[in-house]
Amino acid sequence: MVSIKDVAKEAGVAISTVSKVLNNYPNVSEETKEKVMEAVNRLNFVPNQVAAALSSKKSGRIALLIKLNMKTQAIDEIDMQYISGAISMAREKQLDVITVFYSMIEKMSLDEMRRYFASQSISGIIIFGMNNEDKVLLKLIESQTFKIVVVDSPLVNESTSCVGINHYQAQIDVAEKTIKENMCRSILYIAGMKNSYVTEEKIRAMKDLAAKRKLKLFIRNGDFSELKARQLTFRYAKNKDIVVCASDLMAIGAMKALIEMDIFRPVCGFDGIILMGYVGKQMNTVKQDFANVSAEAVRELNRLLNGSKGRNVRLPHKLVRMKYEDIIC
Amino acid sequence: MVSIKDVAKEAGVAISTVSKVLNNYPNVSEETKEKVMEAVNRLNFVPNQVAAALSSKKSGRIALLIKLNMKTQAIDEIDMQYISGAISMAREKQLDVITVFYSMIEKMSLDEMRRYFASQSISGIIIFGMNNEDKVLLKLIESQTFKIVVVDSPLVNESTSCVGINHYQAQIDVAEKTIKENMCRSILYIAGMKNSYVTEEKIRAMKDLAAKRKLKLFIRNGDFSELKARQLTFRYAKNKDIVVCASDLMAIGAMKALIEMDIFRPVCGFDGIILMGYVGKQMNTVKQDFANVSAEAVRELNRLLNGSKGRNVRLPHKLVRMKYEDIIC
DNA sequence: TTGTATGCGTTATCAG
DNA sequence: CTGATAACGCATACAA
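^ inputs. structure came back:
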């Protein structure tokens, strides 16, 4: 393995000079800079990130904390998009990424968790799918031990940013569009999980929308479960004009139930997963660009690591109808 | 951050002694071993893997090399299962995992690739979705610079193992079962990509099966594309008795085409992706446990890292029919 | 502007 | 069986 020492020898300068050139230090003459870069290219040198991390204590290593859905693989695409988006951006920003699943840390205490990440030389964490029952994570965020970006949860402090689409507005947009298209008066809203931050946002959106348009709103928790949405639909949809769902998976469950009941009600979903194109009926939904959300999260984390303070970052969303013809390839 | 030095002080021994205890060296007395472990627990010490990697040069860092499907997210679940299976097993085996996508390295030369992995202190690599046009990867394997496990490609040498199900047998099993159930005489086989290792295996299986049962076999490449399978079905399925597909996605494309053609032909797929449960018609398919395949790959890589020689590892498969009722939750 | 020296947290090689 | 001590590859305060 060719090291910085080899480069130094090749260029005829000191190790520290090479290091300075590589890290864009100001006080280096153009001349030596060139000499060094030539040597770097000639030897095809790539800095050892592990050693750099150990030495500088800044590491540039970040962790992706992901909550794997154990129940269905139908929405694995969401996590996959998160991962790939993050890794791409991380490479651009020269960050090293490790992927961690909730299951690996869920039984840890705050201290154990801190040590775990510290032992990996992690300096920044991106948290996906967090809800307000993840007490230890909450404490981790409050402790400000690490720079953290939380996706889709409104947690912000000096060292913590949140990124995500505007769930409130997105929920209003998709529901309002579908309501207008079908002239509905009463709504069955199948919400997500009670302890999820976005669920509250979306419920608030639906309430505001119902008030504004003077609609009857009937809310039940579907827990992001397709089966539960199916059951709720069987039970409550008949005397409603529309079924609004907080996720595509639930929308699919609702739609399939309606077909079995042999009645028609417009249904709209949320997320824009590919599965929506396969269920036969088109539905309005909110298209989130998960890879982009995740890439933005990395970008924001990088900002935090460079000393900026936490903030709230909102990303755009789109309304779409997913058709089989459009998604196959 | 509490380091090995703190532990040594706490236990009243030398740093090197602590290291020996932690790494299960033989020549340590039970007594000191206990003292050290007590100190470790008292301080809640976790070894810094980055430092360990740097020092030992053995690293225990492995890379997952994954070919992201850019066309459709319908099969993201496969990669996701690969990733989660690998990470879980890696944690068990105390290995550090980084995820790398083909897109990040596809333009590299052999040397660049070597240096890239070396710079990350990677000592082992698991390659998913490789085909025989990945020339640089082939050379990387031949060079034996790293311990490598290849999933689903029959590449083995001193430092390289391959793992995966028996695609030949699995293809025979699922096709034969479907043929028996429907008394077919002529087959449309929609194969995968020409340059894929498994494609050859499966075609061989189909040929052997056709010969054995005296069936007419008509083969076309579907390139794992749903759209292409759809077109091939429109074109060729009418005068065949059955459509056998090398992937579920193609099977879905074929089935949807048949429905539009308003004719019935039994269709069977391969992989067991969740989407199969959503298309309305049940089909036979081969269920691969991707997470398990991946976990096995990590286990095998760990063996290689510990000095064992490369070998061929075959994993079991199952035949299933995926029903909507069974997969929702 | 450049070079020297020290340390990051481990592992590993020797003495003792 | 245990303990100094030298690497590992790099960053950085400080000296030149």
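Chain A has a mean pLDDT of 92. Residues 1, 3-5, 15-16, 18-20, 22-23, 47-48, 50-58 of chain A lie near DNA strand D (CB under 10 Å from a C1').
thumbs up if we can close this ticket
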